[in-house]
Each structure stands twice: as structure tokens, then as C-alpha cells.
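Crash report, auto-generated. Payload:
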Amino acid sequence: MVPNITLKVHPQLTSDSVIEDAVRTVFETGKPHFVNHPMMVGDHGEAYAAVSCYNSLKIGGGSHTLVRLNLKEAALRCAGGVEEFCATTLPEYAELTAELIEARIRSLVEEQQFFEHSWLVEEGLISLDRFSAMFGVFGLAECVGTLLEHEGIQARYGHDEAANAAAYRIIERVAQIVAERPLPYCDGGAGRAYLHSQSGIDLDQDVTAGTRIPVGDEPSMREHISVCAPHHRHFASGVSDIVHVDETAVRNPQAMVDIIRGAFEVGMRDFTFNLDSNEFIRITGYLVRKSDLVDIDTRGARHGSDYLAAGAEANFHLTQRAVKRVGSAELGARPAVID
Amino acid sequence: MAAPTTGLVSGTIEFSCVDGPGNRFVVFLQGCTFDCAACHNPYTISACIDCGDCVPGCPSGALSMVRDRVVWAEDLCLGGDECLTMCPHNASPKARTLGIADVLRQIEPAAPFLSGITVSGGEATVQADFVAQLFAAVRARWPTMTCFIDSNGDAPAATWDLLEPVTDAVMVDLKCLDPSLHHRLVGAGNRQTLASIQGLHARGKLWEVRLLMLPGLNDDDDLLARTGQWLAAIDPTMRLKVIGFRHHGVRPTPLPLIEPTTAQKEHYASLLREHGQFEITVI
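Recovered output after restart:
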């Protein structure tokens, strides 16, 4: 099952009770996501939509293609550190990515003449002038680790200042490159591709999705949000960091409302959370039941998306996320309840 | 207002959803007036006396003796609880003396995410001056934040006089209505606690009363009924938290402490409901 639903949150216009209703719905079903409405409007205008695979695009528009650049692999092809990567390796691979995007766009628009023939255009549902393309990145965590190792520094993204700073530097450089690279038929994005922080598909192994902190290695919830938030402004067509929440939050949904508001205040574009005890879990854009994932290889699956999710789960160990204790745990691993 | 004071702080948590409404920053103060057999954080009861017994047992070498004082190196600490379990004095080597500014600095990065702060412990009211100044400073810095106290209620009216102007609400533990059983479970009387519950309600500052249920000890039907009646006489619609005892963190004790079943907890709640339209949460 892959239902798409997202709540657009405006800091003043969206009431606590609406957000709380949505939070209670997440407790039951794992949806909706929450997006920062003013940030989205700033990038797309009022007429935008968000869909569950963390894609946000103009209504009536779309993306010709999504090509993803594996930052982990790119770093392995750089002998030096962060600065050399940003000066030489990254621009080289970013340009290859752009070339591929351009080739696909031209194929779609010029050779196949999709927009001449599609009933979607004829019916007025989409128009070429609202289209753009998506330039995706993933594997930022591994990329940072590799480059800093080349500099003789051991540092982990999400935990060490040096790694976090390197991550911001790399993403800002990607954003700069993409902003300076014109693409045809991308009027929807002012003639440039949108950046997308691409969460893994089931083929990915040993590489972290998008600009996320590696699964199971997440710091405290506040740190997790604060470290990842600064990337979000660059990713107009979608970004996601998934926060894992302890089931004690169910009795105090207002706590999640507070956290969601805080996340947007510190610059997140998308806020998504899983409940630790929830039967439903979000894995790479597919919503599946945990019980359907067990023994999927022997039993088969109820829904097609279960196979994709099972593959993603096996490769990503997503049910191992470190649980963020929005709870009473004191320093250390104790599950003690304060009262 | 007194000169700026410091507080002996056992620890803090940036995000808590079980210490009052919304997401809250919690400050746990070191030192308590009670010595409950069922205490799940007994290392907050006393102040460290620098005996040094905990030092060799730290797996990460974060503890050392320097000039006869136990020193905790926070950056080496891996967050384990060996030192807490080992302490023969119900104390913690991690307790720190902090000024108001120190605490505000800790709250700052979490501020956008918070409904407010809660001071717990240990017993918050033992360091009432510090709490009062902290709350005043928090309200000045973040006017939308609420300031809650989690307390055993064992404080005189004068303490609540001091705290009332800067406190939004208090969550009070009622360990036991019966004075002699209270003494047996807690090591102190309940007179001040009973007066505090009544007084805080009169001041409009009582958020909820918490009842820690110990099967076979304080869960007698008759005692519970009397407790329900006593609470209803104050406010029959008040919030109650019925908390089932859990062994985690509790010290060895001759008292027969048992964890109640879900059915037992539901029974406590329905019994209380016979005496008032309480808003009951069972944990």
C-alpha cells in the first residue's frame, strides 16, 4: 500500500489541533508527512503538491526525469579531501549528471514529443512551462567520511562538528553547481533542475539515503533535527529525515506538535516520524505492515510494494533505527519512567 | 530577590513527553527529603560525599579522584549507570553545580521545540530559591514557555509562596494517604504533602496528582477508596496518574515490591473513578 498524504503546515495558520489530529493519525498509520508550507511556497508558489516519496513539485507541472548522483562513489574517485572534491571531482560528476538529465529531457520533449501528444496536456492537467527536472543526491554521510579520512580526520556526520561542516560545504557546492547549470524545458524551475535528497530504492546497499544520518547511528532527536535541517532549504523537490519516536509519545501528542513546529522553525522542509511500536512503517516511500515483511521470501507478499520494501529493509536495516526517546530516559540507555 | 544562586543538578533531558504537557526540557535536581523504598532513581536522593567508591568501576575512565574530590569528565562518559548503581550513598558523581545562565545555555538549542521546562529530581523544592530564579529567567527569555514542577509535596506553604508567582503548575506525588504506611514506604510523614496538595489546588496550581501503586502495600481497596474520596473533596475532576511500580533502578529492599498487572492497574483506576470524575491516565 502506498498512500500519499502530507499535511502542509503554516506556523500561524495551522492550528495545534489540526497538527495533533495528524500526529494521532501517524501513530495509527505512519502517515501523513508534514511539510513547511512557507518554505514550499517560497520555492514553488502557492500551487504546489507534496507526495509520499518526498517529492514536491508545482501543480500542473512535474519532473521530466530524476537522475541521482551517488556522493559516496564520487568521493571514492577523489584522492584529496573536501576542498579538492568541491573544486574538481564534484563538478565533474555533477556535469555528467546534468548531461544525462539533459539528454533525457531532450528525448522526452523533442524526440518523443510527449507534450505534443499527451492527453494530460490536452486536458490541461499538466503544462510544459511548469515542468523541471530533478537532480538527486545520496550517500552524503559516506562521502563526508571518506573525504575527511583522506585528510587524516576521523569524523562522523551527525556526531562531529568537522563532518557536519563538511556536509554543509558539499551540499552548498552542489546547490551552486546546479544553480549555474541551465537545462532546457525547465521553466518550472527557472531553467534549472531542482535538487532532490534522494531516499534509497531497494537496489542500494551500504549507502545512506539522501542527506540523512546513517540508520542506527542517529544522535539525540534535537541534534538529529538540528544537524539535518540546514540542508533542507536547498532541496525544493524533496528531502526527508525520518525521526523514530518512542511509544510514550502516544499519550502526549502535543509533544510531537511542539517538535514539528520546532523542526520547521529551525529550517526543516519535511518532517516525518515513525512510532517505534507502530505496525506500519515507512520504508523508502512505501508504507507497509511490519508483519507483512516477516518471511516475505517464503510466504510472498500481500501487496506489490511489500517486495520493494522488503528489499529496502534488507539492504537498509530500517527497523533498526535508534529510537529517539521523546521520553523520560535519563542519561544512558535506561528505559526508566520518571514518574 | 536573593542574589543569584546555583543549583546542584543531577542531570537534564532535552526532550521529554512524560513530565508535563507537550515537549519539555527537564532539569533533575540532586537531593530529596524522602527515601522511598520504591524510588527508581535513588542516586538522586543524596549529595556526593566523595568517598570514591564509584571511581574504579567506570568502564570509560570518566571518573577520577582529584584532591580528595570525585571528578566526572563528561566528555569521556558513555552514559552508563555503573557509578549510579555502585554508589553506597544514594548519590551521583555526575551531579553538577550550575548557575542560572548555565541552565539557560543548555535549554537554548532545544527552545524552538519546547512547550516549557519542568524541574524534577530528587526533590525540586529543596532548592526552591534556585528553581524560582530559574523560572523567572526562563520566562523572561522565552515568554511562551511554561514552568512546571514535579514534587513530592514535602514543603511548607512558604515554599509555595516563593514559587507561586513564577510557576505555572505542579505535579505532586501522593505516595500514600495513610500516615504510618507512608512513613514505612518513604521514611517520612505525609502531613506537608497533604497540605501542599490542598494548598496548590487553592492557588490554582495543581496540575495532577500521581499515585505510585505498590501491590500488597498501598493498593488496598479501602485505602484507595479513601484516597479517592480525599482527592475528590479537593477537586473531583482533577488529573490523576496511576503509575504501576517498576523494578528498574530500584534498590534492594526488605519490602516486598511487586509490579502490578495491567488488570490490577485498571482495577485501581475504576475504584478511584467511583469517587470522582477524575481524568485518569494509567501508566
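Post-recovery validation: The first strand of chain A starts at residue 6 and ends at 9.
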